[in-house]
Amino acid sequence: MTKITFYGHACFLLENQGTSLIFDPFLDDNPLSTAASEDIKADYILLTHLHVDHLGDTFKIAKAHNPLIISTFEIAKICESRKFRAHAMHLGGKHNFDFGFVRVTPAFHGSGVPGGHACGFIVKFFEHVIYHTGDTCLFGDMRLLGELEDIDLALVPIGDNYTMGIPDAAVAVDFIRPKQVIPMHYNTFPVIECDPMGFKKEVEEKTSAECIILAPGESHNL
Ligand code: NI
Ligand code: MN
Q1: Residue 145: per-residue pLDDT
Q2: What CATH number has the domain bearing residue 176?
Q3: Would you say residue 36 lies in a domain?
Q4: What angle do CA 205, 148, 186 make, to 5 degrees?
Q5: What pTM, to 2 d.p., does this model score?
Q6: Which ligand is nearest to the CA of 111?
Q7: What spacing in Å lies between the alpha carbon of 159 and ligand 1's midpoint?
Q8: 159 alpha carbon – ligand 2 mean position (Å)
């Protein structure tokens, strides 16, 4: 069984069989987070890009627990230059780790580093496949990714302004065809305020996915 915990914004922790993996650990400066970085133990940190609301407390957690940081080449090199353990990947690449595989997907967004590219991740974490899209607009190749991988759970931004808003995010779910979807990247700041119930309604009317809304600090078992 994999437990997924939402900490607000784009930060999710996966735990199974004593292994923990965190996406975009924005905690201490995250107005929605119910946890502090010192509460988090992670074996792996996956970074979609280096904007501050995604890099978050990566270096604090890395200092405390020496996790492997998985990201794009440019970001992995920055982590290594600070003496942290990192594994560099890039768009389209897939690699096996102890927990399963990571496939790096495109995300149409700034990378936060010169010459970089933002990304998303399709992660096989033990028996489940989870697609964290990262910060992105809607793009048609999400349909292709949904055909290439059998996605159990999608994590998609709905807050608009910097990423997809609700109508586009519902189309993304139709393209990705996950069994379940959890919305992210909303209500952290006034500019990305929205009602996730509107997303749930649209997803469940237009797709076969189940939409699960997690309050920050809440967990869901896959
Ligand atoms: Ni961003
Ligand atoms: Mn963001």
Answers
A1: 98
A2: 3.60.15.10
A3: yes
A4: 45
A5: 0.97
A6: 1
A7: 12
A8: 10
